Amino acid sequence: MFGKLREKLKDFVKKVEENVEEEEKKAEEKQKKGILERLLQVEIKERDVEKALDDLELELLEADVALEVVDELRDRIKEKLVGRKVRVGTDKAKIIEEAVKEAVLEILTPEKRIDLIEMIKRKEEKPFVIAFVGFNGSGKTTTIAKLAHWLRKNGLSAVIAASDTFRAGAIEQLEEHARRVGVRVIKHSYGADPAAVAYDAIQHAKARKIDVVLIDTAGRNELNRNLMDEMKKIVRVTKPDLVIFVGDSLAGNSIVDQARQFNEAVRIDGVILTKLDADSRGGAALSISHAIGAPILFVGIGQGYDDLRPFDENWFAELIFGGE
């Protein structure tokens, strides 16, 4: 997981370390000539970092990190390293890596956090409504089943609205997943109004005091304006407490553009990244939250229903820098 991203960042650390060691050697030469009285520490200069940052910028773009995130990361790393005093004989690689790790953590840390369980419990008038949006093939339906399973494990009841009345087989696929995790699906026939299905699911939940309604919607893309309009109608009719974008981390940099399109249409409150276990680049996960201002809530790390993990930026950073 994240092999390419890890490799790029470690290459940067090594280049800066070599540059600082070169500065140290120059200082030692001056000391031998009597120019310096005593050599205790060297300062990391801008030139020690700049060239390595130029290389890192290109490499991060190749690892699918969004351009604005690359620029932000570059500025933060530079701010943490340039002018820093490093004692002679210390582990320079460790110092540089810690600075880079801090910069990555700052990028990953959301401006706002969402405690989903707390939000659901805090809402007085149930149900708590979550609408899921995303591109075709992102793993949205499976993710909804995983989240329903996670909610049940946390003592909350759920029902799923089969509001994808467009894709052939979508309702049957959803019903099979729901059966396996032990939740009910509210459905109409194919071609029915998706907003009406979602509305009926909410009424069903109200009548039976079910905690959460999970609304599955048809996968969209920027070319299908009818489906985008339908999605807007679902949100308008149901007034969900959260709109969650489900994105395939293997989509790379394009996932940021996808999320922006949905964010402009319906305002995304949170993100679930699927197939993170198969992502060798890691750029999408590093980019998406920062790019649209919505936190990553969960990540999919396998095929099983238990393979949905609440996102934690410290865990993610350890994966990048420490490996699996």
Write up what this structure looks like.
By secondary structure, the chain is an alpha/beta fold. The chain has twelve helices and ten strands. The chain has helices spanning 3-32, 46-62, 67-81, 92-108, 116-122, 140-153, 170-181, 194-208, 225-238, 254-266, 283-292, 313-322; strands at residues 41-43, 85-87, 128-133, 158-163, 184-186, 212-217, 242-248, 270-274, 296-300, 308-310. Strands 5-4-6-3-7-8-9-10 form an eight-stranded mixed sheet, sandwiched between helices. The chain has a two-stranded antiparallel sheet with strand order 1-2. Helix 7 (170-181) links the parallel strand 4 and strand 5. Helix 1 packs across helix 12 (313-322), helix 3 packs across helix 4 (92-108) and helix 4 (92-108) runs antiparallel to helix 12. It is elongated.
Mean pLDDT: 86
The total beta strand count reads 10
What is the 3D form? elongated
Our estimate of the beta-strand percent is: 5-15%
Counting helices, strands and paired strands, the structural category is: alpha/beta
Q: Give the proportion of residues in helices.
A: 40-55%
Low-confidence stretches: none
> Could you tell me the radius of gyration in angstroms?
24 Å
Order the strands across the largest sheet as they lie in space: 5-4-6-3-7-8-9-10
In whole angstroms, how far apart are the ends?
Answer: 7 Å
Helix count equals 12
Order of helices and strands: HEHHEHHEHEHEHEHEHEHEEH
For the report, how would you describe the main beta sheet? 8 strands, mixed
